[in-house]
Design a protein that fits this description.
Layout (H helix, E strand, L loop, with lengths): L8 H12 L10 H7 L5 H18 L8 H10 L1
Helix pairs in contact: 1-2, 1-3, 3-4
Length: about 80
């Protein structure tokens, strides 16, 4: 059994930066706020938040060009 610690603040920020590098996000999205709101989340959960936020953006508007902060906040509630 290998224990992997939960990511710290800097690691969570890096996960968000890597994951969102190729995903269009709205001007209202604050990665620092997302990092704070995902304390005690695993790396997989952070990736799930990003994916869920993208799905929520498309559910809101199929022609959406970006993911809003509201999409991320709703995704955090779901994950």
């Amino acid at each position: 059994i290998v224990y992997v610690r939960l990511p710290d603040r800097e690691t969570r920020k890096e996960i968000f930066n890597l994951r969102l590098k190729s995903i269009p996000i709205g001007p209202d999205v604050s990665i620092d706020d997302l990092v704070e709101k995902t304390e005690n989340y695993s790396g997989a959960e952070i990736v799930a938040v990003c994916n869920e936020a993208a799905f929520l953006a498309l559910e809101d508007d199929l022609n959406s060009n970006f993911i809003s902060m509201n999409n991320f906040l709703n995704a955090i509630k779901l994950v």
